[in-house]
């Protein structure tokens, strides 16, 4: 189908597509148009990666906006939200407005009402519904990207319930669900009352196979030699062979440690293949990486990048990951070793994909277990980029003939597993039942069950009565904790229940926080508050390592008067979980005591991304705790606010006022304080030479800081430095994490 044949789309779109080099639609795209995607028909598109799913979404959204509606694009990850916004912003030249919203779960996103296309994570959309965002009623089209993630135990229920609520609130809503190939797309289409496009077509060939010995064995029976030299690992041999054909390689491994180790090993394979220009550009990227954080992880990543390799995992800061992804897309990086985080939708194709590890550790299984077929196929789908690669090739690695046969049977010749709803799990249902009542989607037990009957779980379950039993159990919990009131069949959210829902808290987290705050006999300490929020279900606690139990048991005894709520006995089963929360709280306390980032990441065995994630979560939970304290009329709100501010900026109490000035942050605040500038008033009236000296001679920074604090004459023209000043060009300590809560 030629783009000129498109109907019901904006007049400018065919010409725009032509300018992008798109004149003919791919077959799956043409099928979507024939199924009515530009006419407002709902659609499930189950097609391989790189086969044009995004254009299907763009056709639906722009056509919907042309009819006077508003479109919403739901993504699973914040990183993907930014990527999609960059793609959709090209439409702004034609008068469309695009907005992105991923944070601030207790806001209604009122400003988004002016946008034609909105990009948001499923959690953010859920929170917008809970906070009664008025523009939700104007939605005419919703796109759910990576919809197979309804199968994910963590994120899946939120996406499932959110789609069900949007469809109930907007009965004529066009729903477009996008996914790579899954085992049961017809079930999703049935649930969403949608047409189905189920295709295996790709714009370039994807060859899947297994490397064993000295050869590649492909799914079509073809074999060709790919020799492994003496002392060389198979992965290095594949990377070397790919480089000889001017291609890049993406290697999937099963742990962060393996990702980092593999990148270090592969630098020796890649480094000699770089041009002088590539070395210069990679050196600049490495410098940017070092500026992101002053941790060992950051330094290791920068060192690898300088030699043309990189690693990618959830322990990296988001800026780290973005720099790696961009450099890999630009083919400056020749190989990236990654955990499966990179397979989750972010656009990072390569010539070859190597699934080095097809087993990973599972706590539930108590050992190593195989990856799912769907996950491996998602990884394999990253191979091949249209327009740049003549083909894509994905390879698993076998160590024996038996393993060669097993990998073909398990992954190469097998269809992905069917997607199954995870909604009936108690934590997910507990949260969504309260939100469903509080946001007015149901006002009774029977109404709740009627709403739940619209979910994917109800469409595919064959366990009669299970959802009803779990629902009744969760309702009992919500009533017992004063989040809901029950009068016969009728259900009403209490004032506290409404607050908890709007704050986007797990009700069990709220119950823990309320109990802890109500138990306090005196002003809570920062450590006590950090521990309180760290033991909620909404905080992922740090693991106890060997030797940690004894260390943190001693810390527990030393600080026993600071803990809020009941303290378990050392002999209780929950003692280790309680200590894990204490370890997490200790890490937050170290950050709020101005320990440097590298010391913290080394002490707790975490990456900079982990630290920033914990800080972000703690700030959110403490903000919620402050609201709950106000809701309940407790006197501890100022103490909670102080702890929240300290953890947000990573500062001691005396820096709270200074660090709140935009552009200051933890390190600059400390240097200003040490010159005698202790608060905003001091900063506003300070000698400019003193401010410039404290800010290491950075004229522009000093002017911005003085302007932000309200100085009428912030100019530094003619001002000389006061005191001893580090070299202006030294950026080593200017990555001061002004507020890790903003990442």
Structure characterization notes:
Helix 6 links the parallel strand 5 (139-144) and strand 6. With 743 residues, the protein is an alpha/beta fold. The relative contact order is 0.07.
What count of helical segments does DSSP give?
31
Low-confidence stretches are: 724-743
Average of per-residue pLDDT values = 91
Strands across the major sheet, in which order? Answer: 10-9-8-17-14-11-13-12
Profile the largest sheet.
Answer: 8 strands, mixed
How helix-rich are the residues, as a percent range? 40-55%
Oligomer: single chain
* Helix and strand composition category: alpha/beta
How many angstroms separate the termini?
43 Å
Radius of gyration: 27 Å
Shape: globular
Q: What is the count of β-strands?
A: 19
- Share of β-strand residues: 5-15%
Structure described in brief:
The protein has 743 residues and is of the alpha/beta class. The protein contains 31 helices and 19 strands.
